[in-house]
Amino acid sequence: MNDDKTMCTLQSRVYFKPTDTHQLLHKESFHPKHTTKGILKSQLIRFKRLSSTYDDYFSTAKLLFHSLTDRGYTFTELWKLFKEIWFQYTDNNRENDKNVNLLPIVIPYNSVGSSLGRKYKNIINIDTELKLYKSVIVYCNHKNLRSLLVSSKLTNINSNTTGQTKNNQAAIINRTRTLGEEGFSLCNEQRCITCKLHATTTNTFRSSRYNTTFNLTQNLNCKSTNIIYLITCKQCNIQYVGETSRSLAARFTDHRSNINIK
Length: 262
Fold this sequence. Notes:
By secondary structure, the protein is an alpha/beta fold. It has three domains: 1-98, no CATH class; 100-143; 183-260, no CATH class. The chain is 41% helix and 15% strand. The chain has nine helices and eight strands. The chain has helices at residues 33-50, 54-68, 75-88, 91-97, 111-125, 145-149, 166-179, 193-198, 248-260, and strands at 101-108, 133-140, 183-184, 204-207, 212-215, 219-220, 227-232, 239-244.
């Protein structure tokens, strides 16, 4: 507020939650060298945009830097980038980059891939037909043990296999619904108020604001935990989106309690 008390200015600064541990990517992690610098640079750009004063920017960066020294970063490189962002970076630089036609060279990240990427880039840069493009090397991951051994989706069991009895076919269909189908299903327990009053069997949900239908990508029920849920008012069609680490049944018990005690 000014001395004449007639004008006010709104200022902002970065806020860290008490549980924030600042666990950015370790400097020695097997990533391209520009990755760790890019992560740090993006953080400092965010700090600069949110900080109204240099002191706020300085105190926020200092807090982050003390955490990063345990993750392989040095104060020399941290403070060098700190000064570069505050004194030299502007959002105009970012707008200029949007007008550049990029030509990505996608290769696996390893010593051979890095060498090939540089050679491909040199060839492209001297090609007159591609002078309007800026070539960039983009790395992709190799297949690792986890991707080879673990599948992200469960495959459906074919229930039309010939030569099976009706009982076997029924068992296969039932197992397919349990393991393979994506959507929300009711538990059908007598004491479950959530399934009786608030839920329905479905594999889609619809946004009343954007008038768009989305597919559910997991097999869920009222006992599922770590979920995002959607409540739609039957009278005004307004929707509420919530999240909980507990089960849907437990969370809806809280909602009913809040309504009952107003």
